[in-house]
Specification:
The protein is built from 13 helices and two strands. By secondary structure, it is an all-alpha fold. It has one domain: Alpha/alpha barrel (Glycosyltransferase). It has a two-stranded antiparallel sheet with strand order 1-2. The longest helix has 19 residues.
């Protein structure tokens, strides 16, 4: 058994970050983070090169592969490393700039499904985030790159349904698609429907007392309880939505009708999450019941780190209030979760809940976890002055 506390604090005592070959002469930040921008770029390159070198063949456009590419896009923004851009372009080309590929609108579905009929299911729509980014990065000279995204989302918005986002993961998957397409088209319907769909999701999953989201209707308290009878908020699930709020707030105009509402929700979540952080820097898989599935977990922690850093960087979260939170979580991510070969470990496998007894260790990695790590690292680059 790994003695996490001892390993973690030993790593913290030498914040040289030898794992990623950080340079000497580091700059001490107000938070106690002893790294330069160059050090963070080295971390990004170590992690991203490891992933891309070991996953040469482009995957499909389903949610977990697509979630990696959202992190790869942020890494490209701060590094301008063309191999990152080319990697996502090859993936988009392979998938024909589409998600689920059915062209028969009468068969399009939005319940869970892994086949081409589930065009309206958010897990097949997250890919559009990266397609829109690639369209912008390559000079907007090929509208076909976002044609399918517009076709799908504009058809969806033409329907009377508002229950498209019935699970919390879907909020990260599709909310940023709506705001990105708003910025491309100027069509206010994207923001109106985003609010309509989000309001439905809030009515199903948001707990106003805890200021956190249940994963979906199956996990609402008291019908479902953690091992110790508490409300069971899944870390990665709340990570998806916390990061999702950061992404949409940065995209919409400051005069947007519901922007302040989204900022309030984001700030409420930040306060709740800060209280639940473990002293070692991570969040346990069941946020409010650490004993339910104890031990470190990286994907939720990385999404939270990204959200806190983005909030501080953009003046929405108070730096003094949350500096200790990001110091501890960043140190966990880089001094413990990050392995010597660039693997991001301690990522809970694909699932939808915290599972008692599930093994999550240094060899537990996944594309979406790497994507979340890259989001956090890119925002840390922006944080360092």
């Amino acid at each position: 058994m790994i003695n996490f506390k001892n390993s973690f604090f030993i790593a913290m005592t030498s914040v040289s970050f030898a794992l990623v070959g950080c340079k000497s002469g580091v700059v001490k930040q107000e938070t106690g983070i002893k790294q330069s921008k160059e050090d963070v770029i080295a971390i990004i390159d170590k992690v991203n090169s490891r992933w891309q070198d070991t996953h040469i063949e482009p995957g499909n456009a389903f949610w977990h592969v697509s979630a990696y590419h959202t992190g790869n896009m942020e890494a490209y923004k701060v590094t301008q490393n063309k191999k990152y851009l080319d990697y996502s372009l090859a993936w988009a080309d392979k998938n024909q700039w589409m998600g689920a590929k059915s062209n028969n609108k009468s068969e399009w579905k939005y319940n869970y499904g892994e086949n081409d009929k589930h065009v309206l299911f958010g897990d097949w729509q997250i890919c559009f985030q990266t397609y829109i980014d690639l369209y912008n990065f390559t000079g907007k000279n090929d509208p076909d790159k976002i044609a399918r995204a517009r076709e799908v989302m504009e058809y969806q918005m033409s329907t009377p349904a508002n229950d498209y986002w019935w699970w919390v993961d879907g909020l990260y998957m599709v909310m940023p698609v709506m705001t990105k397409l708003y910025n491309e088209t100027g069509n206010d319907m994207y923001l109106e429907k985003l609010h309509s769909y989000l309001s439905y999701a809030d009515s199903v999953m948001y707990d106003d007392e805890a200021k956190l989201y249940f994963r979906d209707a199956k996990y609402i308290y008291p019908q479902h309880k953690s091992t110790n009878g508490k409300k069971d908020f899944w870390s990665r699930g709340d990570g998806w939505i916390f990061a999702g709020y950061a992404k949409i707030i940065q995209d919409i105009p400051k005069t947007a009708k519901h922007r302040n509402e989204y900022i309030k929700r984001f700030k409420d979540m930040a306060k709740a999450l800060a209280h639940a952080q473990q002293k070692e820097g991570y969040w346990t898989r069941s946020i409010l019941d650490p004993e339910h599935a104890p031990g470190p977990e990286t994907s939720g922690t990385a999404f939270f780190t990204y959200g806190f850093l983005w909030g501080i960087n953009n003046g929405i979260l108070d730096k003094k209030t949350y500096s200790t939170v990001i110091e501890k979580s960043w140190n966990y991510l880089t001094a413990f979760a990050l392995q010597a070969d660039g693997t991001v470990g301690y990522v809970q496998p694909i699932g939808e809940k915290a599972i008692p007894g599930q093994v999550v260790n240094k060899n537990s990695t996944a594309d979406f976890g790497v994507g979340a790590f890259l989001l956090a690292a890119s925002e840390m680059y922006r944080f360092i002055k």
